[in-house]
Amino acid sequence: MRFKLKLCSAMWLCLAASSGAAAVRAADAPVIASSTKAVSWDEHSLMINGHREFIWSGEFHPFRLPDTNAWRDVYRKMKASGFNTVALYFNWGYHSPAPGAYDFTGIRDMDLAIRMAEEEGLYVIVRPGPYINAEVSRGGFPGYLARQTGVARTMAPDYLKEADDWLTHINAIIARHQISRGGKVILYQVENELFDTSDEHRRYMDHLIKKARADGIDVPLFHNSPNSLPNWVPQGSETYYTVAAPGLDLYAFDGYPGGSCNEKGEVGAHNPAPNNGIYSTTQPQIGSLASPKTPGFAAEYGAGWFDYWGSVGNYECNAKRLGPGYVRTFYGANIINRVTIHNIYMAFGGTSWGWMPASVVYTSYDYGAPISETRQLRDKAYTLKQLGQFTQAAEPLLTHMDKAEPLYPTSDKVKLYHNAGPAGHLVFAIHEPHDGMGDDAFKFRLTTKAGSYLIPQQGTLRLKGQDAKLLLADYGLERQKLVYTTSDLQTHLQQGATDIALLYGRVGEDGETVLRFKTKPKVEVIEGLATTVYDAKTGDLRLNYQHKGLIRLRITGDAAPLLLLIGEDAETQKFWRQETDKGPVLQRTSAIVKGAVWDGERLNLTGEGQTAEAIEVWATAKTLTFNGTPLDAHSTASGSLLTSYLAEPKAVVLPDLMAAQWTIRWDSREADPAFDDSAWRVADLKVSAATVPTQPPPGQPVLAMSDYGFHQGDVWYRGRLTARTTQKKLELTYGGGAVGLVQVWIDGRFVGQNELPGGFTYPKIPTVGKASFDVDLKPGTHQISVMVRNMSHNWDLFANEEHKEGRGLISASLSPDETQRFTTPITWKIQGQGETMDPVRGTFNNGGLYGERKGWHLPDARPDGWTPANVTAAPPAPGTYWLRTAFKLDLPKDVDTQLALVFGDPTQTKTDRHTRVLIFVNGWHAGNYVSNVGPQNTFVIPPAFLNPNGANTIALAVTTDGKPGNALEGVKLVDMRQAR
Ligand code: IPT
């Protein structure tokens, strides 16, 4: 059967796929014994070494942060924000420039990427492909696959040979980090979003599953079904709708139901949060219902969205659309739907530097994620922290609960979901419909072992705007009995004799919390306002309050004394929690606390602050330090230590690049008829491995760059021809990706250029262009030079070989005029960036510009041949010229200073200048600027690209048609973020 995607958000996916295959029953392949005991599961949750765990994960791509120190910063910020797991894609093409050649050193050290996550206390979900999509060029395939005739992601022998080689390499690294061998890798993803479930793809999946097992992968295997489709479930769970993959252990789905901002940069109407598990009512059923014996598992759940060339710059907007309200409603819905393995995409997006980005995106992959490209925590990171701490504190309940009696709110604008398990009850309150934005007050009757209540008994319980609440009842709050609360729980812990609990709610909203005591407890209000009523008959202590500031109560009853902290969001979002050798510790500060380690009685905190910050610490410590600085603390009535930390980031003095000495050097030498191309490869292939639309026309040689082993950036062609009659028309077909460019010279004269537009890829924007030039070639021999800027290769989302669409020239026809189509034969030579790589910076760093081939981008490029320049002066000629400057930095030590390069006016997303720049910082290709397309003109420089205390170089390869109006705008070095 075939079914259309019904569940898609308002995105390009809706246009896309339908399942191609019949539902499969038994498969031909034998079932392979699944995981070792280290990771087991049932329908409720994963169990790690027998212990139920709520997997609260975020996605991170080490290849988008070419700075191994910064990896640790991201991991620590993730941990601090409440994540207990990181999911990592590995990008095959990033490691392998040529068949059989692999590099896992330096920034490509994936053993280190996993090891660091382990050191920071995160579980690891690995996603090695071979195909990953991820908005990277060719979806992670190496360039050389574009030379293969076998169809990728099938059993084609040429493809499988290389795919297996990749897996052998990456699996060896993964295998030794598995939890079964003392590491923290708990789950392994096979392939990525294989929409089509044809027999061929099932054989391919089966092959990959067996390959993983043969390589020693013993943790559970899963596949991420696109768009919540119920495909690729474990064998035995297949239904009329679903396709099984024998040997897969878990079913997982991907979903981006939150949508994205519109083309005008407006947040737009919110989508309703779907039920992705036990409350799903859609057919086919998704989430835990598609696979009733495995835990609900969101392998990717939107935490932002990518942005495209020519947009209005939507990252900040997407961060807002998928902001705190989205986090509470959509992720909250997942929690009540028992999605207990929850990975958000992305936790930190990063930078698609060099030629890494796929055609659908530009350099910044900020994604509107909770951790921005500058490694700043956005608002929603703090909402995620509240939820993350909750999933860990309430883990026994969340990982073992089932649907309980339906609840009926007094308002039909509110919907309540009710789960219960051995550890208590969970009520999820959300608007009805789920995208409701009203101000809806409600009450509801809840009956648990602890009694039957009309909630709230006093004050108002409401949902206002995009909001949802996760409410607990009949719940063991450490040594206390919680009857119910209309506040959300953030965390609870024990410190010696004392229990501490942290509750929160929207500012100004009423809250009601009922605790149970045998005898009347003593209630001290340390700070804030709360009323208490004790009912000796029931033993209920009812607290009523407004969520405003931070209320502090000490309640001393028959169990341990309880410090109850109840705050508005902004207050409880300042709380950080770490697990230490001596149990959990808690801090309250607007600085970020990333770690807490004991040294005897001294607690050493690490983190980062941006201003002077108060720090309040709950720990049985005598003394405190923060980043090594001793803190002068005094104890408070709340049983905490209060101190302050002077973050005091020193003002950074950055060089004014516009006042610096620049030099210039001409690049496009290949345009000169006298240029020596004797060493270049003759373009003489007859058949291209490129997909059909980009085959050369009959009689012409293959020109597509990949067939000659050139894979990214700029590629040059030099042709020779003899015209019998006057030639009037030159027509070129070229593959450039979104925003691609072709420039043409004949006999040394510039003929013109053609640019492909930016835009959103689905519905598809052109990635192959046609350019037509009027020429006037008299009979005789001529020389023609063509430069194609290949902005990137397509992905292969639908496994249809799109990644092989040709790049560079596809065809070139020179004819006497429009009507006479006889084409003068041209013999071509080609030159570009081959299947080699800069041993440090990698294969995506460079294309094939003359200057790149000669190393002009490198910091040690020789000064001869460069002359003094004015950066904003008119371009010397059509083509490419280089601008270079050297500057010194003296950044303060132990301050994390994040710099960026800004072109022109950062408040404008595009200009009318047709100016393009390849940006090199100390030889590292930091990004691509296209002034007339935009939106990006601020380029975050990964810290490791810079020498913070010493000499640095910037080299800009500027490409224009030579018109004075297309001169480069100014360029500045700016400080984006400082923390110490
Ligand atoms: C899903 C991919 O698995 C992931 O690699 C990335 O491309 C993400 O989308 C979008 O950023 S594909 C899914 C949306 C069909």
UniProtKB/TrEMBL annotation:
Its EC number is 3.2.1.23. The keyword Hydrolase applies. It catalyses: Hydrolysis of terminal non-reducing beta-D-galactose residues in beta-D-galactosides. Residues 1-22 form the signal peptide. It is an enzyme of class 3 (hydrolase). Pfam families: BetaGal_ABD2 (PF13364), BetaGal_dom2 (PF10435), Glyco_hydro_35 (PF01301). Keywords: Glycoprotein, Glycosidase, Hydrolase, Signal. This is beta-galactosidase. The keyword Metal-binding does not apply. It comes from the Bacteria. Belongs to the glycosyl hydrolase 35 family. GO terms for molecular function: beta-galactosidase activity.
